[in-house]
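ok new one. same drill as before - structure tokens go in, u give me an amino acid for every spot. 309 of them this time. try not to just spam alanines like last time pls lmao
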């Protein structure tokens, strides 16, 4: 079983059980059945707008074909969901651009979503690829965040730049990028404060961090990675909207995918935000952060070999 398939096991089981109940015993596809399918998709946390796109497409096909059995419906749903997730940058996911050095990744997200842990695991992943990595502890408002990132940096075998609690986050980001450039590092990963302040405050803070980093590396950051907790379902989507309104998000990392039956939110967020998923968390271990593969995710979601129907 692949890591992604295993990681979305709860989502897959819930998804198929709901669809099986919606479709089971039906010999024709009518409005009632379509309503049941709609409810099943929404319950999987794909979101109302994305669900309606899928159901409308299904309805169009039903009007042409008049009849579909379970397997035909699954095939059609698979095609529709795969198409919705086919956004720019999703097909060929790359963690960094080797032609850019240092490659600067700014990581954003609210407290509690696994942001600092994701940074630590990403640093370890890149270090294992032979890259020299520096992390910047610019979430200076929480001592725990700096301490946690320090532990992860030591575990990953990468350098960390930190200052005293309460220091200017932009100053930490500047020092981290400057240190990385001076020492020939390949990648810099900057942690930022995990607070959902109002849009103006958030925009100002992230803009300040961008501006000071650009004094060292003119086109930094090269990636703005938003970390979201998949287990929160539609709350994750609302967070994505808020952060996207404050800064240009270029990629997503979805954590805690293994512990939730709400993995359908991955589909909804990609469809609605048009931002690719780059990383997913499918466990607690240092190696349980995985590069996202759309095809593997779809195959895992629609593998009904464990489902009785």
């Amino acid at each position: 079983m692949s890591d992604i398939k295993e990681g979305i096991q709860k989502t897959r089981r819930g998804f198929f059980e709901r669809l099986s109940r919606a479709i089971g015993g039906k010999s024709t596809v009518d409005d009632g059945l379509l309503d049941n399918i709609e409810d099943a998709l929404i319950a999987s946390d794909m979101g109302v707008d994305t669900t309606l796109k899928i159901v409308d497409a299904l309805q169009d096909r039903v009007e042409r074909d008049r009849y579909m059995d379970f397997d035909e419906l699954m095939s059609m749903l698979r095609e529709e969901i795969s198409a919705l997730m086919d956004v720019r940058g999703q097909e060929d996911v790359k963690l960094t651009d080797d032609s850019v050095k240092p490659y600067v990744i700014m990581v954003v997200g609210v407290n509690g979503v696994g942001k600092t842990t994701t940074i630590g695991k990403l640093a370890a992943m890149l270090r294992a690829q032979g890259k020299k990595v520096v992390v910047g502890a610019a979430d200076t408002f929480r001592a725990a965040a700096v301490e946690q990132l320090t532990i992860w940096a030591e575990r990953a075998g990468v350098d960390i730049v930190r200052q005293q609690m309460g220091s200017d986050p932009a100053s930490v980001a500047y020092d981290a990028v400057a240190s990385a450039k001076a020492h020939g590092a390949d990648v810099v990963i900057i942690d930022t404060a995990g607070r959902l302040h109002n849009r103006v405050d958030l925009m100002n803070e992230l803009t300040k961090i961008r501006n000071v980093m650009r004094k060292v590396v003119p086109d930094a950051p090269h990636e703005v990675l938003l970390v979201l907790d998949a287990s929160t379902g539609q709350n994750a989507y609302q967070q994505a909207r808020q952060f996207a309104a404050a800064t240009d998000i270029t990629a997503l990392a979805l954590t805690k995918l293994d512990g939730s039956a709400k993995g359908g939110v991955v589909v909804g967020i990609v469809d609605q935000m048009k931002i690719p998923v780059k990383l997913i968390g499918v466990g607690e271990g240092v190696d349980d952060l995985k590069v996202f593969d759309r095809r593997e995710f779809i195959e895992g979601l629609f593998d009904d070999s464990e489902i009785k129907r």
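The beta strands are 103-108, 133-137, 159-161, 187-191, 223-229, 251-255, 277-281, 289-291. and btw The mean pLDDT is 86.
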